[in-house]
Structure formats: structure tokens, C-alpha cells
Q: What sequence folds into this?
């Protein structure tokens, strides 16, 4: 059973993931062989997560905190990657290698949280945003208390698909599952203020209310205090 929380208090023993990021034509490439998946609901460890360019990936081990649920049919994880024309042959080959390793994991364990998150990452960096959304939504279905899929979906909707209502819903879900997820507060505040959703004044009001909510769960958090001061000065 994977630990799908990013709360450091849940981590018993973690090995740092080795992540190489190659920026080519506006894309980033995550070069990491997926770790061996848990054998199913009785497994006792799972990769620790980290975030690169708004996308959360994983590596290392951590204590189990959530039992996977499986209420919908798994999407087609064997569907080949589709590449944006700006991605060169060398990067395509490396991404394909990562994809094949991820597919192999899912063939052995369709409940692997790590593999579904990685699959979404691979599809996102190749420009298949619909495929990324599908993979992360399925991970969210398997592990509804995890903030990782909802944070990833929030970033996808906010920065790439420009679907602001879905971005708001995703980040609100992250905060509901983990009131200490400061990144989710920051991104949601950005949606309300930088993007002016749903309108400039309404967005500011919602941002200030969200900051107060965040400070109740995270008293004296400097990031939230700074954001409140900036907004009040406007």
C-alpha cells in the first residue's frame, strides 16, 4: 500500500530520488527508472514524492498510510507516447525507455501509485495533456486522500489547459486533504490574484479569505503572512 502523502512526518526512511532534468525546447525531461512497485494492498512501502516544474514524481521509500481503492476501470496505460515536434530523437528515446519501464510496472501491479504518477508525468512532458489528466485522475481515484494527483492536476489545469474552474477544484481538494499543503494555498491564491479568477475584486476577496483559512491551519506561516501583507497593500 503506497504512502501517497507528502507530509514529512509520515516518512520513516527515505532515499533521495536521483532526478535529472533536461530542458529542451521548453520541455523538461525526468530521467529516473521507476522503482519496484508494491505487490498490492498488503505491501508496506512506496516511493517518496518530490516536485519538479509543478509535477510531482517519486522515489525512495515511506510508511504506508492509505489503502488503494479501485472503483473505476484503469485507463489504457499501454497507449504509446505521442511526442511534440520540438522534442528531439535522443530525448524521445530516453522518454520511451522510461515509459516502457512504467508500463512493465503497471502490468504487474495496476495499483502502483508511483507508476500512475510517473505515467502522467511522461505524458505531460511529451505534450499529451489529456493523457496526463487521465493518468492523474485515475491515481486520485485509487488514492483519494493523496494531495499529489490533485496538485499535479491543479498545475495542469492552471498553467497548461487554462481551465480555471478545474484548477480551483483541484487545489481546494489538496487543501481539504492536507491543510498544511502551503503550495496548494499559493497556487490557489495565484489563480485568484495573478489570473484574476473569477474577477479581479472577487479573486482578491477569495484570496484573503483563503489566507485566513490557511493561517488557522498553519499559524504564523511566513509565506501566508507575506501574501496577506502584499494583498492588503494593493
A:
Amino acid at each position: 500500500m503506497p504512502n501517497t502523502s507528502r507530509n514529512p512526518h509520515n516518512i520513516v526512511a527515505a532515499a533521495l530520488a536521483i532526478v535529472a532534468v533536461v530542458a529542451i525546447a521548453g520541455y523538461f525531461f525526468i530521467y529516473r527508472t521507476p522503482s519496484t512497485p508494491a505487490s498490492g494492498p498488503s505491501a508496506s512501502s512506496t516511493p517518496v514524492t518530490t516536485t519538479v516544474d509543478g509535477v510531482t514524481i517519486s522515489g525512495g521509500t515511506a510508511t504506508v498510510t492509505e489503502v488503494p481503492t479501485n472503483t473505476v476501470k484503469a485507463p489504457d496505460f499501454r497507449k504509446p507516447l505521442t511526442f511534440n515536434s520540438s522534442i528531439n530523437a535522443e530525448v524521445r528515446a530516453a522518454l520511451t525507455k522510461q515509459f516502457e519501464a512504467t508500463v512493465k510496472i503497471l502490468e504487474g501491479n495496476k495499483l502502483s501509485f508511483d507508476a500512475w504518477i510517473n505515467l502522467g508525468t511522461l505524458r505531460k512532458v511529451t505534450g499529451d495533456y489529456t493523457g496526463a489528466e487521465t493518468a492523474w485522475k485515475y491515481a486520485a481515484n485509487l488514492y483519494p486522500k493523496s494531495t499529489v494527483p490533485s496538485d499535479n492536476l491543479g498545475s495542469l489545469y492552471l498553467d497548461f489547459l487554462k481551465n480555471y474552474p478545474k484548477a480551483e477544484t483541484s487545489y481546494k481538494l489538496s487543501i481539504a486533504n492536507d491543510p498544511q499543503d502551503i503550495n496548494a494555498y499559493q497556487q490557489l491564491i495565484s489563480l485568484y490574484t495573478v489570473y484574476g479568477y473569477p474577477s479581479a475584486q472577487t479573486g482578491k476577496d477569495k484570496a484573503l479569505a483563503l489566507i485566513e483559512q490557511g493561517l488557522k491551519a498553519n499559524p504564523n506561516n511566513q509565506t501566508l503572512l507575506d501574501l496577506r501583507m502584499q494583498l492588503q497593500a494593493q
In short: The chain has two domains: 1-146, 162-234. The radius of gyration is 18 Å. Residues 6-54, 56-64 have pLDDT under 50 and may be disordered.
